[in-house]
Amino acid sequence: MTEPRWLDEKQARAWRGYRRMRALLDLQITRDLANDSGLSDADYDVLSNLSETSPHRLRLTELAGTMLWSKSRLSHHLTRMQQRGLVDREECVGDARGSIIVLTEAGLRAIEEAAPHHVASVRRHMIDLLTEDEIAALDALTHRVITRLTTPT
């Protein structure tokens, strides 16, 4: 086995800072979302993904893949959202085991009411703290890491 390439002090500080920032930022944005709209982070993720498609519907498998959730976990969450009238399910023609998740009128209203508050929270806690150069660097960095993690080796 080869010797590990340990992080130097500067790299370790950056890594720890990123992990702490991510945890605190996720916690604050999720808290703001719940306080402002009564939606959970998962609710918002489902509703925003559906609202960005035309005509506001996605196969369960596609939605699960986008959210990086298992179909089972997403199905349980969707059942709770369905009970609240935010989404509905339709059978998938030609695939008896598949289902289509549909954004309801109540779900569309919920995401339209939540989105301005959510964006304000994202701005307040992150975006407005960055310069244009830092936003460009963040964009480049995040997409480089995403490409590495989503490209088969």
Brief account:
By secondary structure, this protein is mainly alpha-helical. The protein has a domain at 40-121: Orthogonal Bundle (Arc Repressor Mutant, subunit A), CATH 1.10.10.10.
Largest beta-sheet characterization: 3 strands, antiparallel
Can you tell me the CATH superfamily of the domain at 40-121? Answer: Winged helix-like DNA-binding domain superfamily/Winged helix DNA-binding domain
Strand content: 5-15%
- Number of DSSP helical runs: 6
Structural class: mainly alpha
CATH architecture of the domain at 40-121: Orthogonal Bundle
In which order are the strands of the major sheet placed? 1-3-2
Alpha carbon gap, first and last residue = 21 Å
Counting DSSP E segments of at least 2 residues, the number of strands comes to 3
Quaternary structure of the protein: single chain
For the record, the CATH class of the domain at 40-121 is Mainly Alpha
- Contiguous low-pLDDT stretches (5 residues minimum) are none
InterPro entries: HTH_MarR-typ, MarR/SlyA-like, WH-like_DNA-bd_sf, WH_DNA-bd_sf
Organism: Catellatospora aurea
Protein name: MarR family winged helix-turn-helix transcriptional regulator
Domain HTH marR-type: 11-147
Write structural notes for this entry.
- The chain is mainly alpha-helical and 153 residues long.
- It has a domain at 40-121: Orthogonal Bundle (Arc Repressor Mutant, subunit A).
- It contains 6 helices and 3 strands, in the order H-H-E-H-H-E-E-H-H.
- It has a 3-stranded antiparallel beta sheet.
- A hairpin with a 2-residue loop joins strand 2 and strand 3.
- Helix 1 packs across helix 5 and helix 2 packs across helix 5 (105-125).
- The longest helix is centred in the N-terminal third of the chain and has 29 residues, at 9-37.
- The model has no long low-confidence stretch (mean pLDDT 95).
